[in-house]
Amino acid sequence: MTREKSQNAIFILNRLKNSLSIDSDIKLAAYLGVKANTISSWKSRDSLDYQLIIAKCEENNIDLNFIFLNKNQNIEEANTNKNEDLALLIAKKNKETIEEMRCEIEAFKTLLKIDEQLRD
Length: 120
Prior knowledge:
There is one protein chain. By secondary structure, the chain is mainly alpha-helical. The chain has helices at residues 9-20, 25-32, 36-45, 50-59, 64-69, 75-119. α2 (25-32) packs across α3. The longest helix has 45 residues, at 75-119. It is rod-shaped and about 100 Å long. It starts with 8 loop residues before the first helix and ends with a helix. The relative contact order is 0.09.
């Protein structure tokens, strides 16, 4: 059974180092709070402390899809697009509401004129 390269421990650790701007396994080990030889063991065994890596990624808002699957889903970009879509929808709804209110105001003005004429 072969593993996809995107899930290989070495690739995951390298993507994590790149995301954190860390240039050595020793610095990565210090950041993760493990011994440097632990990183070497993970690489040679192709195993990781997934919970630790996930926790550190979440602390730094690092995209887990990128770290583990090498699929860069820019969450901020997606959120920006959703926010822009929502803003456009709200603006359209506001325009519709304003137009409806204008019609209601005109109808009310007409009723006031009729009422005024009837009183005269």
